[in-house]
Amino acid sequence: MSGTDTARTELESALAARLLAEHLARPGADEALNAAAAELSEGRGEAEGLAAGLMARTPRLDHLGVAVDDVDAARRFWIELTGLADGGSEEVPSEGVRVTMLQAGEAKVELLEAFEGAGPVAKFLQRRGPGIHHVCFKTDDIVAVLDRLREGGVEILGQAPRAGAGGCQVAFLHPRSTGGILVELSQPPS
After folding, report:
1. Taking phi first (over 0 means left), then psi (-120 to 50 degrees means alpha), and beta for anything else, what does residue 58 get?
2. What pLDDT does residue 51 have?
3. N or C: which end of the chain has fewer CB within 10 A?
4. C-alpha angle with apex 155: 116 to 184, nearest 5 degrees?
5. Could you read off the pLDDT of 32-90 as tens digits, one per residue?
């Protein structure tokens, strides 16, 4: 085995051990992963498979939602002056917003402009003005994450999950349950 292969194997083992420790410490972890974690801790099973299973259920930062009065003006700032890449625009009638996604490395900035003066973003703009509206985490299994959060007493806003931008299934967590931050969960389309 070369030095690079050895280093990679050691890194994978360290990652698997860290993920295993985090998983075993988390209340409400599902039975399939508990069984895989037990096998790994007993020297059976594959670290890569367990790591992949844990990562699929661990939400990752997807985007910051920014409420704006004028999405076209905000777009000019974010694209021309900061150099972020335009990821496209669409309307999400169920939320009453025009959405423009801008790529910022692994994450995105989502510009949100309310239309017709209705919906949560319109209310946010009326109360607080433009600014950061929410933080969004991507997950591969939104239903499992929502079940775990509900079991933990987290307040979910509205119907969840529901259709969101880009064909994703989304859910929002009430700021009372998250330390004052509106949190969105998003599962990309299959």
Report:
1. beta
2. 45
3. C
4. 55
5. 555 555 555 555 555 555 444 444 557 799 999 999 999 999 999 999 989 999 999 99
161 cis-preceded (ω within 30 degrees of 0): yes
Structure tokens at 186: 């998003």
Tens digits of residue pLDDT in 123-155: 999 999 999 999 999 999 999 999 999 999 999
Q: pTM here?
A: 0.69
Q: What is the pLDDT at residue 50?
A: 46
Q: In 3D, which of 68, 50, 52 has the Cα closest to residue 129? A: 68
Angle, helices 47-57 vs 3-25, to 10°: value is: 50
Q: What percent helix, strand, coil does the chain show, rounded to 5?
A: 45, 30, 25
87 CB-contact burial (10 Å; exposed 0-12 / middle 13-18 / buried 19+): middle
Q: In this predicted model, what pLDDT tens digit does every residue of 168-179 receive, in sequence order? A: 999 999 999 999
Residue whose entry in the numeric block shows the structure tokens 């239309």: 115
Laid out side by side, the sheet with 97-104 consists of 85-92, 97-104, 107-114, 60-68, 131-138, 183-187, 169-173, 156-163
